[in-house]
């Protein structure tokens, strides 16, 4: 213990805190409040994704201040810096959504840049909206300095005038209901005004809550971080404890690569499957694994899916939201149940300095009588609900979430669109009929660019009563709030000449979760003939961030990373 106390924790900041020749460097820091004694301490970066552009992040400035207090109280010299965020809910359904996935890379690059330039020794990263979590974690993986991730927390559910719990997906689906004539304009406005009652990320087991849960399961967040709601004292405590914890990680010499192992990623996938999380977990976990040099593939997800039951009755396909789960024990209590069933690797190291099993011995089990998480012997389904589908339409795979669906397959004629807006117009004009399979292509990582989420059109389809009557597939993505007969991440994408680019109106498409097939009834000979006529379209953007992204980004099946 004495050795730890006397250990110089300035693993990088010593580059600027020692020697007369570094006096100019120190002079700059004195201007922001550093004193002589601070230069003997490890410098801790507090990466804040605070922003007023979304309720997911509007409170994170206060959380960052708490993390700073925690680091300072434990012997660190903390510095808050900011990075960007994009609101997926606001950017959904129009050109702005093209910037959403690229924002993950901007977040990662900006954190890596500040930490590298300023020679900071440790990192607390605090994220709210969907791309914050993987963006922060990709940076943590690349940097490999002692680090803790803190989730900004979930939003509370809103209340409609009828007293019903509602959330952001409720208003997206209400647009379809209004179009179908099942609600009036006054009801639509009521849902709009009450869906998002305050700070915090979208409430169901959508992408933000999915990734927060995965990161806690991986051991890179303190126990409780994933499910403690945004506007509670518990969330402030999370941040203060994280600030203290990162200094302890420096003392103990524990680095992200010690924690983010292959077994830790398997734990993350297990929790995602049990909770019925977002299909975006495939994209983000593969990218996070890439940042630490871990090989993670669709085959790993499929292997784990077959042995992990779906336990959680959570939105979008279930009844409850993350705040409800918090009240019955949270993600940590779910993990305790999974560990006792032998489905988690309990020997994985975590940011507490203890193993996952050691952490979970201190966690109370799920509350007796709760109905949100099923017991192991009575799951919602015997296997995980997130499927990899393959076939001549998706040789590299497509991703589907089949929770809450009675209809598991569809074969129908393709209705092909080269943009989401064209497809949305067709749905709103009632030009899509039961039995059709809507195809939206040139929406992939390169072709979009940015692999747009399509919560808007999928919610409209559900709102119009077509959720299990039509199929929807794309080389883009779907929000964690999406449910229905939908398949995303179809790869190779249209922009690079994947089979989806060769589809024509009327081709029969089969989506079958039982056989895990995604195919088109077109012969190899006919596909070869069509390929001769196909020409790669120019990139949509001739310059700027989307041009850079399109030129660098990999396939969705490789995590859509930009540093291969």
Characterize this entry briefly:
By secondary structure, the protein is an alpha/beta fold. It has helices at 2-6, 14-17, 23-30, 60-73, 88-91, 100-118, 132-143, 168-180, 185-194, 207-218, 233-252, 256-259, 262-275, 280-291, 298-305, 322-327, 330-340, 356-361, 420-428, 455-463, 524-533, 545-552, and strands at 43-48, 77-82, 122-127, 147-151, 158-159, 165-166, 386-391, 394-401, 409-417, 437-440, 471-474, 486-491, 508-512, 517-520. Strand 7 and strand 8 (394-401) form a beta hairpin.
Structure description:
The chain is an alpha/beta fold and 564 residues long. The chain contains 22 helices and 14 strands. Strand 10 (437-440), helix 20 (455-463) and strand 11 (471-474) form a beta-alpha-beta unit. Helix 7 runs parallel beside helix 14. The relative contact order is 0.11.
List keywords for this structure.
22 helices, four-stranded parallel beta sheet, alpha/beta, globular
- Helix and strand composition category: alpha/beta
What's the number of helices? Answer: 22
User: What's the story with the biggest beta sheet?
Assistant: 8 strands, mixed
Shape: globular
Kindly state the percentage of residues in helix.
25-40%
In terms of quaternary structure, the protein is single chain
Q: What Rg do the Cα atoms give? A: 24 Å
The average pLDDT score comes to: 95
Determine the N-to-C terminus distance. 41 Å
Number of strands: 14
Residue share in β-strands: 5-15%
Low-confidence stretches: none
Output the strand order for the largest sheet.
7-8-12-11-10-9-13-14
